[in-house]
Amino acid sequence: MSALRRKFGDDYQVVTTSSSGSGLQPQGPGQDLQQQLVPKKKRQRFVDKNGRCNVQHGNLGSETSRYLSDLFTTLVDLKWRWNLFIFILTYTVAWLFMASMWWVIAYTRGDLNKAHVGNYTPCVANVYNFPSAFLFFIETEATIGYGYRYITDKCPEGIILFLFQSILGSIVDAFLIGCMFIKMSQPKKRAETLMFSEHAVISMRDGKLTLMFRVGNLRNSHMVSAQIRCKLLKSRQTPEGEFLPLDQLELDVGFSTGADQLFLVSPLTICHVIDAKSPFYDLSQRSMQTEQFEIVVILEGIVETTGE
After folding, report:
1. pTM passes above 0.70
2. To which H or E segment does residue 270 belong?
3. What is the pLDDT of residues 184-199, one digit of tens each?
4. Where is this region: Disordered (predicted)?
């Protein structure tokens, strides 16, 4: 068992199971047993491989109102299904509200009963009920203008409502369409074609012990002003006794030499030299396998085709 552990490392543990697969059985004489390597349960990551942060904010209390103070950013950060729901709901409510306002004007003036009178001039021609009032609003809001329903000059309240409708419609269009446009133009999906190596390695390079991983761009369009940074996340305790659960340390990947400025026309190897200034300098090979830490790689740049 110890030989198997030395061969496969600490990422696996050896268990004994019966050949029938009926579960764990104690080893005994006369039993046909086999040894299987079962991977240990993976620890939960602070940042997933896809870039999603596994952080949930709790105990905010009254601080949740701050999200409403920045409503536009809150809507952009929502998931697509909620964005589409709010988009459809807002337009539906606004349309029904404005159509109701036109119907109320026609009802209070008595246009619904006198619309078919030959010498009577209504506020809105050819509006007899709520569906016709709704159609009139849609025709004016969408600037269709069939010409069958129109406002007359005998209705000042209708002219005021039409001005209010134009202003309100412009505000709703600018807010919702702008929100959808910003969400669609976010460069998050661009990260799908930026590939990182699955594993990082430590080996000698140029006579120095170096932590290395690779990054590449699958698209022909370049990443302008691409820059890479690395953060080491680990818990530590200060000399004063304070415990820091997620202390962030910067890993030097060429900041002093300019090697952190990337030209991603081909896959590049990112290097961090483990010297006296490195957080890994005091770690041995055994302690590095058991130490609780996480390395987060941040790649920033401008998408050439969109400028995002």
Report:
1. no
2. strand 268-273
3. 877 777 777 788 888 8
4. 1-34
